[in-house]
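Weekly puzzle thread! Below is a chain. First person to post its structure in token form gets bragging rights.
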Amino acid sequence: MSPSTFQIFYPQSEKLKTLIKLYYVHYSEDENYVDQLTYFPNHMTTFSAYRGTTIVKEQYQRIHRSNTSEEWHFLLMHKIDRSRSIITKGSFFKITVVFYPLGLNHFLSKHIVDVGADHYASIQPFSSGINPILEMFYRIRDFQYLTTSLDDFFESAYVGLKENRIKRLIHLLLNDVNLSVERMAYLENISRKTVLRLFRQHLDMSPTAYKSILKFRRSLEAFQDENYNGKMTHLAYEGAYYDQADFNNHFKEKTGLTPKQLFAELNDIKKGLFWKMSHVPKVQYLKER
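Winning reply:
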């Protein structure tokens, strides 16, 4: 089986750098390619475009099989609240945009809760102008072209997010992940009901669900930190867990694994990007400016 190609690149627009974390392309032309990838809870949102792929969805797993179609299949993924797996069989071609929390909302004409109710939705929430960009890149494989074209597309698709209260609420949680809904309401001088409504409209989840994912990610990111001392207690502390038992139980709930088991199996792709893969690609980067 031949290896796959995995290329990461970044928005160059100053406006987009705070909304889009990165773009990446992952593909293989080997018809015998087989891989199982597990991804984990995340408070970011991803939009992926697949060419020549049949996708079969199950509750906690997707199966991707190659087909001869030249059509693009789109997946918008949010509310990533537990680990799920993707089994890929045959050749594939995938382009993904990773949005920071609330980043996608700046390119939507309606609330995210009205875009897709499930964990992943087979929709393309943008204008059809992105389709020719994807097809052209598929044919010429010019990464600089894709970076520039995607930047131009999202610059033109930008509508902004006028609801500043949800931005401030997320900022509060990033500083103290254990804040209660009542405390957030008090600090923002709004009602508890309004806090719940803002989270539902703009994140399609409750504050409790969002905090649960945020704590998990903080521990994962501490694992990548150069100052990590190798102790599970350090990761529990960085995730703001009550104690070691709380840390262990939460990880088992989210992944089916203890923290020790998960970190032993985790593939560190890039800071903030974690998967478990049966075949780890060599990751290439376009220079981040």
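Puzzle host: Confirmed. Bonus trivia for everyone else. The mean pLDDT is 89.
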